[in-house]
Amino acid sequence: MEEIFGTICLAGAIQALLLVFVLIIKKKNRRANLFLSLFLVFGILDLFELYLGTKGITASTGSYQLSIIPYSLIFGPSIFLYIALLTAEIYNFTKKLLLLYLPFIAALLVNLCLYFTYNLSEMPAYVKYINVIINGGGVIFELTLYIISLIILQRYIKRLKEYFSDIDSLKLSLFRIVIVIMIITVFIIYIPFSQESHVRHDHSILDIIPVIGGLSLIFGLTIAALLQPETFNKVRLMENAVAHEETETLPQYKKLRLSASEEELYVKKLIDYMSKEKPYLNEELTLQDIADEISISSHHLSMILNIHLKQNFYTFINYYRIEDVKEKLADSLYKSQTILSIAYSAGFNSKSTFNTMFKKFTEKTPKEYRSEILI
Fold first, then answer.
1. Which DSSP string do the residues of 311-333 spell out, in sequence order?
2. Domain 2-237 is classified in which CATH homologous superfamily?
3. From CA 297, how far away is CA 301, in angstroms rounded?
4. Where are the domains of the chain?
């Protein structure tokens, strides 16, 4: 078992190192990727330290690598800053943000002092308690930042609906899944392990499971970043389109308001344009596209949608798409076409989004609606 455990750790460290090199040479999202790389580097150190432990070169002070390096205190901040920078939750990186790493530095210094002061096999009880506090607190700190990162992702998706008519390729499902699994893993596995502080000289299947799980999460997160390089670049479009502020209530639009007559004119202009030109048929339609066509700033268009029409851009456009589908479902000329092909012709490019939006606006499934109107 010890040999298997060591082999898994070494192989994982080597693969993670290759991923670091890939991230470093990527031109896009370099600032954010720096923190993902930092996460990977310390993950590599963690795995390599575990590997050395199986060879008798190092020893851990707990059942799962409670070593000198307080890994949890660097994993959490690194993932948080990575997600925050990519989603533009943090616009301008400042040195103050590095304060998130102060707990790591402090805990590392304490661990170093204890390591060089006491013999590992003869540590006083209070030293073991300090170890548990540092590592247990670190895991809670890590868990908290993962939860905040998930909240940031959810807010990002909400903001997407202000600017894009199709967000299926931008919803970051893989990122969200990985973060959720990381939260569950930390909560179920690492918190219980962090409460132990006895010396380990062998490893069991209970040690292999969290290592494999951790490796899967590391690779999943990195692969998600590599496979969706354009996803977060959409943030820049949003930054240029609309000021970085909440867009749901009137007070946030106070400085953007036009005269009542001007706003009414733009509302009419928008509705006429949607009816005559049918821009919603373009599956990649954005807020900026509409703004350019009706000669209005994207700021004011967003305001008009939220205040006068009580909708975000995503809902507004998909309402027209659903209306287009409903018309075709009622038309005998389209009787031979499948519902999905009709949906695609109306601007949808995802079956799940179409079904969700159709249910939202009609309170029926597409099949139920079609069967009723064809009776």
1. --HHHHHHHHHHHHHHHHHT-GG
2. Rhodopsin 7-helix transmembrane proteins (1.20.1070.10)
3. 6
4. 2-237, 242-310, 318-375
Q: What confidence tens digit (pLDDT) does each residue in 241-281 have?
A: 544 444 444 555 556 677 788 889 999 999 999 999 999 99
Helical H segments across the chain, by residue range: 2-25, 30-54, 72-86, 102-117, 125-160, 173-185, 191-194, 205-227, 234-241, 260-277, 287-293, 298-307, 313-329, 339-345, 351-362, 366-373
Beta bridge partners of 286: 164
Instruction: Say which residues have a Cβ less than 8 Å from residue 255's Cβ, sequence separation at least 6.
Output: none
Token pair 């943090």 is found at 90
Give the amino acid at 25: I
Region of residue 15 (left: phi > 0; alpha: psi -120 to 50; beta: else): alpha
Cα separation, 194 vs 161, in Å, equals 41
Q: Is 299 exposed, middle or buried (0-12, 13-18, 19+ CB in 10 A)?
A: middle
> 318-375 adopts what CATH topology?
Arc Repressor Mutant, subunit A (1.10.10)
Q: Which residues contact 170 (CB under 8 A, 6 or more apart)?
A: 157, 160, 164, 231, 234
> What pLDDT digit, counting tens, does each position of 154-206 carry?
888 888 888 888 877 666 677 778 788 878 777 766 555 555 544 444 555 55
